[in-house]
Amino acid sequence: MTATLLSPKDLAREYLRRLDAGDPTIVDLFADDATFYFPKFGLGRGKAQLLEMIGKLGELVASIAHDTATALFLQVGDRVVVEGVSKGVLRDGRRWAAGETPAGRYADVFDVRDGKIVRLHVYVDPDYGSDHDAAFLWGRDGRTW
What we know:
Blueprint: H1 8-21, E1 30-38, E2 42-45, H2 46-58, E3 61-66, E4 72-76, E5 79-90, E6 95-97, E7 105-113, E8 116-124
Parallel strand pairs: 1-8
Antiparallel strand pairs: 1-2, 3-5, 4-5, 5-6, 5-7, 7-8
């Protein structure tokens, strides 16, 4: 029996679904030698480093939900760019939600080969709790998130 390969766009959606669910099988979506980028982690390679990055992020983030219904999915060949919003809860109970707090807007770039993610670059401010005051160069008052 042959497994059906997901389209690159469906693979990106499945990645977000598994990420939100905290599903450890998320690594099965990646090629063994996949590369990835996450702010403050840097460039990583392979499933072990991917799990390290996700695990450390899980020490901060209790839950996350990406709104895939309103996300923009753009596919050109085997590359998919997703621009969207998320909301979630930190382990200390604080919440964030795009549009309500500074955190939560993201863009992901996926490269897919043979039904597996071979490259993923995540562009997001990982300061979900807005703790890095020095980065608010224009202040917080009067801003729309």
